[in-house]
Amino acid sequence: MKLVYGTTNQAKIHFMKRRVKRLDIEILSLEDVGAPRFNIEECGKNQLENARIKAHAYYKALNMPVFSCDSGLYIEGLDDARQPGINIRGPGDRMDDNEAIDYYTSLATEFGGFMAARYQNAICLVADNTRYFEYMGDEIASERFYIVTRPHEKRVKGFPIDSISVDIESGLYYYDIEGHEEKYINDCYVAFFEMVLTELQMG
Hints:
By secondary structure, the chain is α/β, with parallel strands linked by helices. About 30% of the residues lie in helices and about 20% in strands. The chain has a single domain, classed as Alpha-Beta Complex (Maf protein), CATH 3.90.950.10. The radius of gyration is 17 Å and the shape is globular.
C-alpha cells in the first residue's frame, strides 16, 4: 500500500520509513507525488487536531491515502503558560533549528542544567472520502528524557532537540546510544499501521 506522508520535514519521512519497513507499506513524500505547495494553518488545540487538519488538507489536495503526525513537548516543572506543547518551535513555528537549541538550552539552565521532558504524539490517516483513522495516546508517546544545556556535536536537520536530549537511565546523549530512535518511540506506530491495513483489507 502506498501512503503519502503529509509533511515537508525530510527527517520525519526518513524516520517513518525506517519504522515501517517490515510492513507492506511504501511511504511517499509530498515531492514524490508532485504535491502543490500550500500553507496549512495548524490551528488545532492539541497535536491530534493538528494531525487531523494536515491529513485531511493533503488528502483533499492529492485524493490519495495520506497521513500526518504531530507532536507536543511537555516539560516537567514548567508552568502551564510556558509549556511548549504543540508550539515546539514557538508561537507561529518561527524558530529554526539553531534558535530552538538556544531556547531550550537556556531553559534548561533555569532548571540547574537539565530538565525532564516527554513528547506526546498523534497520527491521523485518511484513506478515502469516508474512512480515516487516528490515534493519540501514551502508547505512541516518547519515554521521559532530559533536555540539557550542552548540545551534542551531531545535528540532524529538522530534529533540533535531539542534539540536547539525554537518556535518563544511562546519562548518555541519545546520539551516543546505538539505535537511539528506539528510545524515543516504540513500535506502536507500526501497530497503528497494521491495524489500518487490516481494516482496509476487510473493507
